[in-house]
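Morning, I've got a small favour to ask if you have a moment. Here's the protein in full, and shout if anything looks odd to you:
***
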Amino acid sequence: MENFKIHILGCGSALPTIKHASSSQVIELRNKLFMIDCGEGTQTQLRKHHIPFSRIQAIFISHLHGDHCFGIPGIISTFGLTGRTAPLHIYAPANYEAILQQTISFFCQNIEFKIIFHSLNTNIQKVIFEDRSLTIETIPLQHRIECCGFLFREKPTKPHIIREMIDFYNIPISQINNIKAGADWVTPDGKIIPNKKLTYAPDTARSYAYCSDTKFIPHLYKIVKNVSTLYHESTYTEEHADKAKIYLHSTAKQAATVASKANVGKLILGHYSARYDSEATILKEAREIFTESYLSNEGDIFNI
C-alpha cells in the first residue's frame, strides 16, 4: 500500500505559545507532498521535522487569518534561495491574490520559479485538483471570514495479481495490464480462466478531510461521511462554549459529534486555545463522544 500520511507541523491557534506552532500540515500521498495552511514559522518546522521543501507542489490556504498564512512569504523566499525551479501552486480565497502579488514583487523579485495562484470559492464544495492518484475538493466552513476545508480522496487502484495463478497458466507479462483492467485469460486450448481467479481486490481507497477554523455545522458530517481520517478544529472544551460561539470556533465535543455522525475512521484534534496548559481535557471530552479521537502535536505523523 502506498504512503498516505499526515505530518503535523503546527496545531496551535491565533495566540502564539512556546508549546505549539501555528497551523500547518503536510499531506504525503504516493511520494507527492501538499501543504495545508502555512502559519508563521512553518519553514522552520519543515526543517525540524526533515520534510523536503522541494517536493511540496502546492499550498492550500483555508482562510486569511494570520495563523494560517503568515508563513507564506518566508517559505517562498526560502524556495528561491534553495534553487527551486518547479512551479508552486497556491490555492487560497480570492482576496489573497493581490496580497500575494505585492509580497512577491516586494520581497521575492528574483525567484526563478513560477507561482500559480488558484482562487477558491469557499462557499461551494468543488474539486479543485485532480491527477491520476487523487482528487482534492473544498469543504465550505463557517468562520468569521471566508473559510473552507479540504477533502483529499485517493483514487481506487487496480486489482492485485495473484502471481501463482499467472505462473500456473503461463500468462505472458504483456497481458498483466489487461488482466488488471478486468480481462479474463484464454488458454491456448480455448479454456477461459475468469478474472476473479487471477486477481484479488485492490486496497480500499483512503480519504482525509481537513476542517479548519469553523463553528459547529450540523450538516458537515454529510460532506465528510465515512472518510478514513478527519481533522476538525477543537479550539475549546465545553467549559468555554461561549467563547466558541463568539469567535465561531468549535469545542472538542462538537468535533467528536461530527466524527461520530460521519462514521469516520479516526478523528484528529487541533487548533488549541492558548488558555489550556494541557490538552488532556480536550481529548477526554472528545473521547466521551468518539473513542477514536487523537490529539495532534508538532512532529506527529498519522498514517491514513
Q: What stands out?
A: The mean pLDDT is 95. Residues 96-107 form the longest helix (12 residues). The chain has two domains: 4-157+203-303, 160-200.
